Amino acid sequence: MKYALIGCGRVSPNHITAALQNRLEIVALCDLLPEAIADLKQQFPELRTTKEYTDHREMLRAEKPELVAIATVSGTHAALAVDCIRAGCNVIIEKPIALSLADADLILAEAEKAGVKVCANHQNRFNPSVQAIRCAVEQGRFGKMYHATAQTRWNRPKAYYDQASWRGTWAQDGGCLMNQCIHNIDLLNWMLGGSPVSVTAVTDNLAHAYIEGEDLGLAIIRYANGAFGTVEGTVNTFGGNLEQMLCLFGETGSVEAGGTLNDVIRVWRFADAGPEEEAAMKQRFSTAAEHIYGCGHTPLYADMIEAVEQDRAPYVDGRAGRSALELVLAIYRASMTHAPVSLPLEAASTLDCMGLFCREPEE
Fold it and tell me: How many Å apart are CA 76 and CA 101, to the nearest integer?
């Protein structure tokens, strides 16, 4: 399968590794900055003869890839995805799928019209620990689900934002919930049935006056099945990243997962199993990932390739990406209006938040 990557920045090595491990024919690399392509090629000798482009439309015309991954600035995802889809390409879109519901809906509509597949790059769904938790959910082991929590306690210093002017802006990024926390928000949404009906939330910018978005978000979400979800997301933790946690509490089960990417099982208790199962799960999932991107790109790519070949929906399809986006935008709206927000939303965008945390930058 002919494959191309648009965007050769920070996350691109994970995409290239996944493409190589899945034996895709990498026909092109595209980035506005030729030096970014050069840096990526230096990391992967296999790419030394791969075609280079700074214009994605030219690349699409010349190479006609069957599968394109989009790993660019968040605010450019939608326009690039639509161009690829209209060129007949299946697409993998890095999170978030878009920054507005209108753009996400356009991606889905264009893909249906063109008969191609869209995969939202929420690769943490493929983490082995997350798959084990999802299996317990699907088997009904929790009984009636009461509530679940998604916590992302990380640190992003000024140096991180200084690396790229788009980071932390409403037009091209959003705050910590949209950028750093959306993977865990996706998992919360997925585990609780994906049908939130109301959101109450607060967000603030407490320590990053030089960005437009939030550096702290707290939310309570009510789901159609009666369960509640809570979100805690921050990039203010002193001394570096702490943990990302996912905890589920039901009538007949409790699970607590922590570590880098919910990959360390700390509690695994079910009415239909004894303490030996909990001990086994703790032993099996006792090591945290070394990197925040985890190991999910390769199985996500494998699933997407199979989805194209078998003409089925990807495991993490475009609607899943839209759902995570909608929930973050609902949290933003609830924070702005200081009132509960009902879902589904008719329309919403990060641009709705412009000026939310206006203040004079610190010297």
Answer: 14
Domain ranges of the chain: 2-123+295-316, 125-292+324-353
* Model pLDDT for residues 137-161, shown as the tens digit of each residue: 999 999 999 999 999 999 999 999 9
In the predicted model, is pLDDT for residue 108 greater than 80?
A: yes
CA distance 281 to 266: 9
CA separation for the pair 170, 175 (Å, rounded): 8
> 10 Å Cβ neighbour count for 351?
11
- Give φ, ψ of 192 to 5 degrees: -100, 15
Alpha helices in 139-254 (DSSP H): 158-162, 176-179, 182-191
Q: Are both 2-123+295-316 and 125-292+324-353 of the same fold?
A: no
Q: With CA atoms as reference, report the closest residue to 5 among 309, 294, 301, 293.
A: 301
Strand 253-258 relative to strand 244-250, pairing = antiparallel
Architecture label for domain 2-123+295-316? 3-Layer(aba) Sandwich (3.40)
Which residue type, as a one-letter code, is found at position 286? S
Beta-sheet strands, E only, within the chain = 2-6, 25-30, 51-53, 67-70, 90-94, 118-121, 145-153, 196-204, 216-223, 228-234, 244-250, 253-258, 264-270, 341-342
At the top level of CATH, the class of 125-292+324-353 is alpha beta
pLDDT tens digits for range 45-60: 999 999 999 999 999 9
Residues 82/106, Cβ–Cβ less than 8 Å: yes
DSSP annotation of 349: B
Q: What is the pLDDT of residues 330-351, one digit of tens each?
A: 999 999 999 999 999 999 999 9
Please give the angle made by the CA atoms of 215, 218 and 222, to the nearest 5 degrees.
145
Q: What is the pTM of this model?
A: 0.97
Q: How far apart are CA 106 and CA 85, in angstroms?
A: 11
Token pair of 244, please?
A: 């990302």
Rg (CA), the chain: 20
Residues for the chain: how many in total?
363
Question: How many alpha carbons lie under 13 Å from residue 361 in its C-beta half-sphere?
Answer: 5
